[in-house]
Amino acid sequence: MEIRVQSIKFNADQKLLDFVDKKFSRLEKFYDAITGVEVALSLLPDHDNKNVKVQVSIPGNTLVVEKNAKTFEDAVVDCADILKEKLVKVKEKRAE
Predict the structure, then answer these.
(1) What is the pTM of this model?
(2) Looking at residue 14, what is its pLDDT?
(3) 59: Cβ–Cβ under 8 A, 6 or more apart, which residues?
(4) Do the beta carbons of residue 73 and residue 88 sit within 8 Å?
């Protein structure tokens, strides 16, 4: 599974990139047919100004989750939790 991270209008430090990689690489435990993960990190002008948009490619579908938070880490954790639930639902539907 390939995880691509894009930081828009800023340079993400290695610590943040490692955190993103660690969180989203765990998704493979819940759905082993993930073909790719694209993560876009961007800054917004409002209060919760860290935006994380994640696209997870699975056969026949693409799951998209977008979250804003005060820190990128919080937004990444929120996205990972939501994607985990979505992937479990997709896997259960395929098993039926």
Answers:
(1) 0.91
(2) 96
(3) 33, 35
(4) no
